[in-house]
Amino acid sequence: MLSINTLTAGHHLDAVILRMLKERIAVATANARRPVEAPDKLVDHLLDQHRLSLHFLSLHVLTAASPRREALLLAIDRPVSRKHLRRLQGIVGGIIENGVRDGHFKAQDHHLSADLFTAQTKPIWDPIAIVARLQGSECYSPYEHARMAVDRLG
Predict the structure, then answer these.
(1) Neighbours of 128 (CB within 10 A)
(2) What is the pLDDT of residues 44-63, one digit of tens each?
(3) Would you tell me how many other CB atoms lie within 10 Å of the CB of residue 54?
(4) Which of 48, 129, 152 is nearest to 91 (CA)?
(5) Rounded to the nearest 5 degrees, what angle is found at the Cα of 5, between the Cα atoms of 4 and 8?
(6) What's the pTM?
(7) Buried b (16+ CB within 10 A) or exposed e, 5-34
(8) 3-state SS string over 105-152?
(9) Burial of 111 from C-beta contacts in 10 A (0-12 / 13-18 / 19+)
(10) Nearest residue to 97 via CA among 84, 87, 111
């Protein structure tokens, strides 16, 4: 049986994650509206999301005691998180769709491409993947990884 403290902690975690995701969506939306070409928008999007993850990790995870860190990392995969991540993926899909229309990317289903692009770039933006990468060795910088992923769309 869950205690009141456990339920309160769960709500607090949801609030922290929701705040992070809303900030991610605001940054992604602003980036998508910029008057630059789609490839640059996608690279900038990934680097923005990487920076937001590092900020989140430094505030809430890397400085936290182990049980809190584990709880926060698990909270990222809750339904509220998945809904907002789908919105972010929709923004990526819109950028890809515009890039196809403008001739920057080859013809492709922008929904499927956004799914694949998001999965392929997870080590750049996902806090859990970043923690794993920081603990291991990464052969590419976030910029190089982002640039390669965008180039594959062309």
Answers:
(1) 17
(2) 999 999 999 888 877 766 55
(3) 15
(4) 48
(5) 85
(6) 0.81
(7) eeeebeeebeebbbebbeebbebbeebbee
(8) CCCCCHHHHHHHHHHHCHHHHCHHHHHHHHHCCCCCCHHHHHHHHHHH
(9) middle
(10) 111
Residue with the larger pLDDT of the pair 64 and 70: 70
DSSP characters over 15-39: HHHHHHHHHHHHHHHHHHTSSS-HH
- Encoding tokens for residue 35? 């008057």
Report residue 29 as tokens. Answer: 């939306």
Contacts of residue 21, defined as CB under 8 A and 6 or more positions apart, other chains included, come to 80, 81, 84, 85, 88
Q: Which residue, chain included where needed, has tokens 């994650």?
A: 17
Provide the CA 21 distance to its chain's centre, in angstroms: 9
Query: Would you say 102 and 42 are in contact if contact means Cβ atoms under 8 Å apart?
Result: no
What Rg do the C-alpha atoms of the chain give, in angstroms? Answer: 17
